[in-house]
Specification:
The complex is a heterodimer. Chain A is an alpha/beta fold. Chain A is 48% helix and 9% strand. Chain A has 2 domains: 117 residues, Glutathione S-transferase Yfyf (Class Pi), Chain A, domain 2 (Up-down Bundle); 150 residues, Rossmann fold, CATH 3.40.50.11810. The longest helix of chain A has 17 residues. Classes of the chains: A alpha/beta, B mainly alpha.
Chain lengths: 290, 193
């Protein structure tokens, strides 16, 4: 299995700790990641909001490069990038007119392969829960976690074709395999406000606020994410939501791969856990995990 | 496999047509004739509580061809594209794609956005992608603050993020930038931010 890696802009920037921990964990699992050569931005919210042809072309170039590198699969750990890449591949397969236009723009046959995976599907399919359990050396005992999927890891169902679109379980199962407990909560697949972080912050304070309330109410110690937008919004806007609502959340927001790394015996520093605004250290120390 | 279109054919009670509806069928590959008028799209909508026109009404306005109203609605600029509407729709009507289509149309016709900062941010982001091929998050935030005249917005948080190593001062660049720029051929130059 040749795996192409599409980090996207955030895993080199705002969510560097996600990128670092993805690389550590994949290396530990014996999965070689081949970064897509000279990849470009997926266009994110901006491109799909204003120009359909542009958003499909941006992803098509990345997929075509991965195909030409003879890769079998693309791993896109950012749920936003994943959604753009997977959505483009779906549309290129079903819309021949657009596929011809895009092919002319990128001067290459419009790619419908390789298959694109988000982190959850990748772990479930390339490792599986039993193999994962066998690699745990430091079980995450005593941690009560809210597995947060957000919108784009499982939706739209017709395109993603993985897990349940509104009541997903894969991340819960992975965390349980690592020895943690997961809570039942209402907002596991609700939206955090995504791409409005800077442009219309009130939308993010509102929607991320609802997610924080729900996780707190369910009694979680921390929120676990597999998307840099979810991670950044819930971590960096938590203080503002607290101030607005007068509620103290104390909810560290941790990337799934960081917790996998801890369970595999890596130190928090190797996994970028010092980079969060809401430090996960007090919680991890109280459970003997840091 | 069961074809939704065949299955619902007998229920197609509403034969109202409009140019906009035909356009949407052609470009969005989704057929709003299949709407059962059940309202599950609005029921699922993450931002229905702030939308001026909710998804169920949007579909109805398309059916009767109320294009002018649709192209200036605030919902175009506050939709979070969370995909709940399409997933809950019994007929799988692709409302997020319809929202993108209407927004793109409004944008091309220079219809003012009800949330100019949202439009500005999109434009600045696309400008950066055209320039570098990737998004320099730190530079984009500074640019957005200056152009939206919110000079101190998130300044304190930005400093904290900088010291946590989350903001790269130097933008990364794509080598084959000419190829990226080809993709922008249909976007008017003055609208790139």
């Amino acid at each position: 299995m040749n795996v192409a890696y599409y980090p996207g802009c955030s895993l080199h920037g705002l969510a560097k700790e996600y990128g670092i921990s993805v690389e550590v964990v994949c290396k530990h699992l014996g999965i070689e990641l081949n970064e897509i050569e000279d990849w470009n931005c997926c266009g994110a919210t901006a491109a799909h909001s204003l120009n359909h042809e542009l958003t499909i072309s941006l992803s098509a170039r990345n997929l075509a490069i991965a195909r030409d590198m003879n890769m079998d699969k693309v791993l896109a750990p950012c749920a936003g990038c994943f959604s753009r890449l997977k959505g483009a591949s779906y549309e290129l397969r079903n819309n021949k007119v657009l596929a011809a236009e895009v092919s002319e723009i990128i001067k290459s046959e419009a790619p419908v392969e390789p298959e694109v995976n988000n982190l959850l599907q990748f772990i479930m399919e390339e490792q599986g829960l039993d193999a994962l359990k066998g690699k745990v050396t430091k079980p995450l005992q005593g941690l009560k976690l809210a597995a947060y999927y957000g919108c784009l890891l499982t939706r739209p169902k017709e395109v993603v074709q993985f897990d349940d679109p509104e009541q997903p379980v894969s991340m819960d199962l992975v965390l349980q395999a690592l020895g943690a407990e997961t809570v039942n909560w209402a907002h596991k697949a609700e939206c955090c406000g995504g791409g409005y972080a800077a442009s219309d912050t009130d939308i993010v304070l509102d929607l991320s606020g609802q997610v924080l309330d729900s996780a707190k109410r369910a009694g979680a110690d921390a929120i676990v994410v597999a998307c840099p937008m979810c991670g950044v919004n819930l971590d960096t806007r938590q203080e503002a939501v607290s101030a607005k609502k007068g509620i103290k959340y104390d909810l560290p927001v941790i990337y799934l791969t960081q917790l996998m790394g801890i369970a595999f015996g890596y130190s928090p520093a190797q996994l970028g856990l010092k980079r969060h605004l809401n430090s996960p250290f007090p919680l991890l120390q109280s459970k003997g995990l840091a | 496999m069961l074809n939704t279109e065949d299955f619902y054919h007998v229920w197609r009670i509403d034969q109202t047509s409009s140019l906009l509806r035909e356009e949407i069928k052609e470009y969005c590959h989704t057929n709003i004739e299949m709407c059962l008028e059940c309202g599950k799209c609005s029921g699922g909508c993450s931002n229905a509580h702030i939308f001026d026109i909710t998804p169920r009404k949007i579909i109805q306005l398309i059916k009767i061809g109320e294009e002018a109203k649709l192209l200036k609605m605030d919902a175009l600029w506050s939709c979070v594209a969370c995909q709940l509407c399409v997933d809950r729709c019994p007929s799988s009507i692709n409302i997020p794609r319809i929202m993108d289509y209407l927004r793109e149309k409004a944008y091309k016709q220079n219809i003012p956005s009800t949330r100019p900062n949202v439009e500005l941010f999109h434009e600045l982001m696309l400008g950066n992608i055209k320039k570098f091929g990737r998004v320099p998050e730190a530079l984009l935030s500074v640019e957005f603050n200056i152009k939206s005249k919110q000079y101190t917005k998130d300044a304190e948080m930005g400093m904290k993020m900088f010291f946590k190593g989350k903001l790269n001062p130097i933008p990364a660049r794509v080598k084959d930038i000419q190829m990226v720029r080809r993709m922008f051929r249909n976007i008017p130059a003055q609208r790139e931010g």
